[in-house]
From TrEMBL:
The keyword Kinase does not apply. The chain crosses the membrane at residues 114-136, 148-173, 180-199, 232-254. PANTHER family: INTEGRAL MEMBRANE PROTEIN, SLR1174 PROTEIN-RELATED. InterPro entries: ABC-2_transporter-like (IPR010390). This is ABC-2 type transport system permease protein. It comes from Rhizobium esperanzae. Keywords: Membrane, Transmembrane, Transmembrane helix. It holds the Pfam family ABC2_membrane_6.
Amino acid sequence: MSAYFAFARSSFHSQLAYRNEVWANIFGKLVQVFARVAIWQAAYAGVGAIVVDGVSLQEMVTYALLGGAVMGATRPERIIGEIGRSLKTGDVAVWLLKPLSYPLYLFANECGSFGYRLMTQVIPTIAFTALFYGMLPPASLFDGLMFIAFWALSFTLLFLMSALFGLVAFWLMTSFSLDWILGALLQLFSGLLIPFWFFPEPLATIARHLPFAWVVYYPNAVYLGRLSTVDVWLHFGLGLAWAALFLAGVLWLWRRASGRITVQGG
């Protein structure tokens, strides 16, 4: 495990070398969050109400801020792009000679990047925008603690989804458009743009049962106290089941991909 910790630490430190990029990324995150909040302010102003379908404007502002935090610390396109570059350069074949797991290396690498983005982008952005717009506290101590657990689950699920999509590149021989496809699914079905409270039926019911919902919607819903205690534990268990399913898929695809490398390489 010390080797994977070293990979995570190296990933963290390598990104610190580009300090000007830190300010550019913070500015970019601020623009995204301001735009997302402005959309909901305009939407509520358009209907002339501060509560729509039982959801207040302040709850939606908090939801928008949290959505940026949950999604902002993980970059699916970076994970898929890393797999695509390793495949194109042939570096991925080297992992067959090492007593290490390539999927675990990717996870360690993303953990280091996650820590970097959390410290340099997400926390400063949320702190600034929360002071500017105001942000609701967790509905309860339990909801606050479970939000952290759901956030960790969200990170794990998002990594596994990205790795799964990235490994498909071994059959396509390119990762082109794979990150776009996953990004499009996340934008629509994670609840990042529009919470499922405002989805029409039966689309809302379908979206709540897709794995993408655990990336943004459920962590935010837990934070705001939109789920009962029983539902929180139920959906956390379902999220773990989705994570286990995606983990099995990643390991299976990697075994198949390893076989392709061996056969094609002779």
